[in-house]
Design goal:
The protein has 555 residues and is an alpha+beta fold. The protein has 17 helices and 20 strands. The protein has a four-stranded parallel beta sheet. It has a four-stranded antiparallel beta sheet with strand order 14-13-15-16. A four-stranded antiparallel beta sheet has the order 17-18-19-20. Pfam families: Ribos_L4_asso_C (PF14374), Ribosomal_L4 (PF00573).
Length: 555
């Protein structure tokens, strides 16, 4: 829309001074709608067409009759006579040479298009508002670079000019003659048959001069190339927007410019000369969408434009079950699953896939020490051992039971618990009544970081748990030596020793697999299974837990 200006300057015929000012008409604030202007211009321009049609006799100015059937030729009417090539040729039909056209044009065609009156007034107001914007006038091709103000208003003395020379001098004085020169230089010979129909040349449009009363202004300006004149009461959209293009360069007389408010009205009152007409309202305050989008307020909240992606006209469909790239685009989590499978395969290959240790809590109804010990057949040796492991109060308890060849009653020795816990007394088992009279097991733990190597500890619930955890978590526990003390008759001052190392454990497993006649026992508990073998250095007990892969004990 045009800029908000309260007053417009009125220039003299000489163009050197501003003689007065005039109030800016409200019609120049009307909304600019190029779509409505183009539609109305097209309909109005159709009303100026001259009817045309072909002759009603064309194609029928010959004598021709059909030959009928039975001659093996088409039944189209044929020229009669003989002695010439024309005889026997088809006539009248649109498919025949020299025949009439199909559906000959008639002069009673609907040439004129009726347009709504309010729509025509809307288009006229839009064209007038566009003529006050210099950018639109320049875009249409008019040379107004030196014009002092738009719209250009000249005093009423312009309406009294009688001579063309005076009119040219006025255009030069207001710096509008350059637009006339442009029109004069654009005169070209028309292409086509319009040259034969009184339309031999074509040229651009120049300034439009709008006046209120004719006191000789028409005679003065009518012979200047490109200049058109129109009365302010007879404004025509064909002249305000030639070709439907907004931005015609208009030169106003002072009286014609002042009459616009009475002609079109204002936003406060209706028109005085048009019945029940009011200026159209703006749907948006600023119809310049480009200016709105590029404004700082909108650009601050918009994200930056991304790269342009042009869709290919044809895309080959690929099977996502076979094409890994398509599968990942459809399901990005498939890459995570593939990576997890590779890691699991590597762990299984390296033997590092550990089983989770599942802890089972003992039932409160059953005493933890009342689990039945599985007896095994006595070997033909002086020692027979098997072991048992139970879970109680978040601790692993190791029970080593042995049968001495001199003890016919097969007394059982339980060394799993610390004396201060008095778990044995709670069981009230008569088999364990002689526990205080028996020997105890002593172990030694060697740690490379400790200077002392005589750290003795008893096989108790707490120590066994610490030992088993360290064997799995800390690889620096290099060796564990268990000592079993026989009675004085069999001991002879010597100790039978066996060192707990990886090599000895491996040998243990091999011996268990090879010697099937040695005793093997599996406990009913879901927690552990045990094996016992006899070696030349002593009896070896191997305890395996489901929570930790290797729990090794040796006596």
């Amino acid at each position: 829309m045009s800029a908000e200006r309260p007053q417009i300057s009125v220039y003299s015929e000489t163009g050197d001074s501003c003689i007065s000012t005039i109030e800016f008409p409200a019609v120049f604030k009307a909304p600019i709608r190029p779509d409505i202007v183009g539609f109305v211009h097209k309909n109005i321009a159709k009303s100026n067409r001259q009817p045309y049609a072909v002759s009603s006799k064309a194609g029928h100015q010959t004598s021709a009759e059909s030959w009928g059937t039975g001659r093996a030729v088409a039944r189209i009417p044929r020229v009669s006579g003989g002695g010439t090539h024309r005889a026997g040729q088809g006539a009248f039909g649109n498919m025949c040479r020299g025949g009439r056209m199909f559906a000959p044009t008639k002069i009673w065609r609907k040439w004129h298009i009726k347009t709504n009156l309010n729509q025509k007034r809307f288009a006229t107001a839009s064209a007038l508002a566009a003529s006050a914007i210099p950018a639109l006038v320049l875009a249409r091709g008019h040379r107004i670079e030196e014009i002092q103000e738009m719209p250009l208003v000249i005093g009423d003395g312009i309406e009294s000019l009688m001579k063309t020379k005076a009119a040219v001098d006025l255009l030069k004085a207001v710096n509008a003659f350059s637009d006339v020169v442009k029109v004069s230089n654009s005169r070209k010979l028309r292409a086509g048959k319009g040259k034969l129909r009184n339309r031999r040349h074509r040229q651009r449009r120049g300034p439009l001069i709008v006046y209120n009363e004719d006191h000789g202004i028409v005679r003065a300006f009518r012979n200047i190339p490109g200049v058109e004149l129109v009365n302010v009461k007879n404004l025509n959209l064909l002249q305000l927007a030639p070709g439907g293009h907004l931005g015609r360069f208009i030169i106003w007389s002072q009286s014609a410019f002042a009459l616009l408010d009475a002609l079109f009205g204002t936003y406060k009152k209706a028109s005085d000369l048009k019945k029940d007409y009011r200026l159209p309202q703006n749907i948006v305050f600023n119809p310049d969408v480009t200016r709105l989008i590029n404004s700082n307020e909108i650009q601050q909240v918009l994200r930056p434009a991304g790269e342009k992606h042009q869709k290919r006209p044809y895309t080959q469909k690929k099977n996502p079950l076979r094409n890994n790239g398509v599968k990942i685009r459809l399901n990005p989590y498939a890459r995570v699953l593939q990576r997890a499978e590779i890691i699991d395969a590597e762990k299984r290959k390296a033997g590092k896939l550990k089983k989770e240790r599942v802890q089972f809590k003992a039932s409160t109804k059953v005493a933890p020490r009342t689990s039945t010990t599985i007896d095994i057949q006595s070997l033909k040796t002086k020692f027979t051992r098997h072991s048992q492991c139970i879970y109680y109060q978040n601790y692993v308890y190791v029970t080593i039971i042995y049968d001495h060849f001199q003890l016919n009653n097969h007394s059982n020795l339980d060394i799993s618990f610390e004396p201060e816990r008095t778990i044995i007394k709670e069981t009230n088992s008569p088999i364990l009544s002689n526990i205080t009279n028996q020997k105890t097991f002593i172990t030694e733990i060697y740690h490379p970081k400790t200077s002392s190597t005589n750290n003795s500890f008893s096989i108790s619930n707490n120590n066994v748990v610490i030992l088993l955890r360290k064997l799995d978590e800390d690889s620096e526990w290099s060796s564990l030596k268990f000592k079993y003390y026989l009675n004085e008759d069999e001991m002879n001052g010597e100790e039978e020793k066996w060192v707990l190392t990886n090599e000895n454990v491996r040998k243990c497993s091999e011996l268990v697999e090879k010697q099937s006649n040695w005793s093997k026992a599996s406990l009913s508990s879901e927690l552990v299974s045990t094996q016992a073998i006899k070696d030349k250095d002593g009896l070896i007990v191997q305890i395996k837990s489901k929570q930790q892969p290797s729990i090794i004990g040796e006596s």
